[in-house]
Specification:
Blueprint lengths: L1 H9 L8 E2 L5 E6 L2 E2 L7 E8 L2 E12 L2 H4 L11 E8 L14 E3 L4 H12 L15 H29 L4 H13 L5 H9 L3 H4 L6 H11 L10 H10 L1 H16 L20 H13 L5 H5 L4 H8 L5 H4 L1 E3 L2 E2 L9 H23 L2 H13 L6 H8 L7 H15 L8 H7 L10
Parallel strand pairs: 5-6, 6-7
Antiparallel strand pairs: 1-2, 2-4, 3-4, 4-5, 8-9
């Protein structure tokens, strides 16, 4: 329960009656200090009065006093400036490396806080704190949602920065990889990212004025121009139609020219996938987008409103794919343009995070502000996570709200990080509750 002790100390949730150290001295906590998330004592620059004497220094927290020795603090000079050792159970005196004996406080966790915390950890109902949500002030909800929204963009920024590194510092290439990943719409995201990383865009640029050649490189790098990638029941028809062979021959020439190596076609998943999400269709759409110079970061940065950004992502397919979902399998003719729903998701998961990340990279706050503005202008996502929070009483007005609530579920609820959640804080300090199903 050391994590709970940290929480109780940080938020001063301990009893208000006079405190005493384990050796009987009066203790007054003036400032609990700055929480340290790195190596070293748990809280820096705390202020406490022990026996009427003011001490300024660090605080270390453990379940038991003996953990001090278990963690080797008695030989570590970084702990010489500890002015108070806070423990759940006092099982002995502690010693610093310079021979001092810091005073100890056996911290009592209020029964209500402990019981509510145990409820949060063990309940099967989800989210376990749902009962308090309608009671939260609008200020608490708004500030927490804003924090979560920023946190989610920061998290996506880290993923983008890793792609920039994989692309040898090219933000343009990293944008294409990020877009490709999100063209997988979940199930094929990892395969799309690996595919995009395999494409040398500097080489493709030499053939940017020829859509057929772009499609040949894109399909070939996906491994989809291998005869084995065509299901046996469609293979004969694919060869008879001729388009497959034309693409394949063009790819073999370009692959030799640029020393290309395709990814394994077995990475692509088709089971329970709607035909419009088949890799062939999504890759054809990306080829079309790239050909029309709409897949570049420079074009995105020039967008001044959400309508322009959405228009930039709008794309379709070449004539062959209007009548096919895979090679050799004719279908009813459709333009197969991205739906408004798909464009909305691409704006939320690709364009907006990229604007934010690039703004941070360039130290350009106007781009970061634009990312937040775009989120507020977009419709909220409609998925099971968002609907769950709505059922619990939270308003979801736009994509910024839905992104915040996805972050809340993924990074706090699923990880049982109730102690870091502002809703969890309100729940813990409240009266005893018995969680029930919503």
């Amino acid at each position: 329960m050391e994590q709970l002790l940290h929480y109780v100390w940080k938020h001063k949730l301990f009893p208000l009656h006079e405190l005493h150290t384990t050796d009987g001295q009066t203790l007054e906590v003036i400032d609990t200090g700055l929480h340290n998330h790195n190596a070293g004592p748990d809280f820096f620059n705390a202020k406490v009065k022990v026996g009427g004497v003011l001490w300024v220094g660090n605080v270390e927290i453990h379940d038991k006093s003996s953990d001090w020795f278990l963690h080797g603090h008695d030989h570590d000079p970084h702990y010489d400036n500890v002015v108070l050792h806070v423990v759940g159970v006092d099982d002995g005196e502690v010693t610093t490396a310079d021979g001092n004996h810091p005073p100890q406080l056996q911290l009592e966790v209020p029964g209500t806080v402990r019981q509510n915390y145990e409820d949060l950890l063990r309940t099967d109902n989800y989210p376990p704190c749902y009962k308090i949500i309608p009671q939260l002030s609008s200020l608490t909800v708004h500030s927490w949602m804003s924090t979560l929204q920023t946190e989610r963009l920061e998290q996506k920024t880290e993923a983008i920065k890793q792609r920039v590194s994989l692309c040898d510092g090219s933000w343009e290439s990293a944008y294409f990889v990020t877009m490709a990943r999100n063209y997988g719409f979940g199930i094929n995201g990892a395969a799309f990212e690996q595919w995009a990383l395999s494409i040398p865009l500097h080489a493709v640029d030499h053939h940017r004025d020829d859509l057929f050649q772009i499609e040949a490189i894109f399909m070939g790098q996906a491994g989809l121009l291998s005869p084995d990638a065509v299901p046996e029941r469609y293979r004969e028809e694919a060869m008879r139609e001729g388009y497959f062979n034309r693409l394949r021959n063009e790819y073999l020439y370009l692959a030799h020219k640029f020393s290309l190596q395709p990814i394994d076609y077995k990475l692509w998943r088709f089971l329970r996938l709607r035909p419009q999400n088949f890799p062939h269709i999504r890759i054809a759409q990306l080829a079309n987008l790239y050909f029309h110079h709409k897949a570049g970061l420079s074009q995105l940065v020039d967008c001044k409103d959400i309508k322009a950004a959405g228009e930039l992502l709008r794309t379709g397919v070449t004539p062959y794919w209007e009548t096919h979902y895979t090679f050799g399998s004719p279908s009813e003719k459709k333009e197969k343009r991205l739906s408004p729903f798909s464009i909305n998701l691409l704006l939320i998961n690709t364009a907006i995070p990229m604007l934010f990340a690039y703004g941070r990279h360039k130290q350009d706050e106007t781009l970061c502000d634009l990312a937040f503005d775009f989120l507020e202008q977009l419709k909220a996502e409609n998925n099971h996570i968002v609907r769950m929070w709505q059922d619990c009483g939270l308003r979801v007005d736009n994509a910024g709200d839905s992104q915040a609530l996805i972050q809340l579920k993924n990074e706090y609820c699923d990880r049982k990080e109730c102690l870091r959640c502002r809703i969890g804080y309100q729940y813990l300090k409240g009266e005893r509750r018995s969680p029930q199903a919503p």
